Prior knowledge:
This protein has strands spanning 3-8, 11-12, 17-23, 33-35, 38-45, 49-53, 61-67, 75-79, 94-95, 101-104, 117-120, 126-130, 136-141, 147-151, 156-165, 168-177, 185-186, 192-193, 200-208, 213-220, 237-244, 249-258. Strand 11 and strand 12 form a beta hairpin. The two termini are 46 Å apart. By secondary structure, the protein is mainly beta. The chain has two domains: 3-79, Sandwich (Immunoglobulin-like), CATH 2.60.40.10; 94-258, no CATH class. An eight-stranded mixed beta sheet has the order 1-3-6-5-4-7-8-2, with no helix packed on it. Strands 9-10-11-12 form a four-stranded antiparallel beta sheet, with no helix packed on it.
Amino acid sequence: MSTLTAVHPLRAVESGRLTLHGTGFPLDDLPAVTVGDTPARVSFASTRRLVITVPGAVEGGKIPVRIAGVPGETAYVSIGSTWATGLHQVDSPVFDAEGHLFVTYSGSRGQEAPVSVFRVTRGGTREPFVSGIVNATSMAFGPDGRLYVAQQDGLIRIYDVTQPVPGQWSAVEAQTISLIKDIPNHNDDGSLNTSLTERQVTGILVTGTVANPVLYVTSSDPRIATYTDLDVDTNSGILSKLTWNGSSWDKVDLIRGLPDAEHVRPRGVLR
């Protein structure tokens, strides 16, 4: 007798995969699997495991998963629903200390989008928040309550975030850090490349204290090849630490020579 015993993971989104565990699943004639009332495609099957793809027509919420003709307790998964559209995230969105969500619109390489950072309300409405950033990549709120936004070219912009009127948010640029952008680049043979005047940033983490914030930033050679060899430094990845000493930023490169690739960029910061 076939039996459904568990579903993993318990949270998923459209086009995500769910694994159904059990015993005695038939293989000659694959059983029909539904998420809610919507049929799901089975992409892998064995007698003890089925892998399905979450269909696109499923509404968000706690949804039952069933296998036709297979007894057992009904399994439920939480399906995420679309909250906001018209965004272009490179790294993860961020929440401030009060739980407000901020997201980027990075745009095409070298493009300054009309709005670089949006605040998204609980109802999913986008509210323009920051403009004037060329390819915003990673963001983080610091212990000082400021918003730190990295540009793809290596600049890091710092914004004072205020709410002058309840419900109306304001961001004023307070500082720009160029220490990462100024890191020298090299070719793959180790020779210095003075024609490259930027670094590609896709990861930032802010820690420290209110008085002395500390930034951890990952950066790499900004060149991205398209089916050609651009002599990109394939060990150009650097993890840098920036510390505010009360009057200026001090930079120390913690790790150098992290592997990179001409077609793939390292993303994120270890946490």
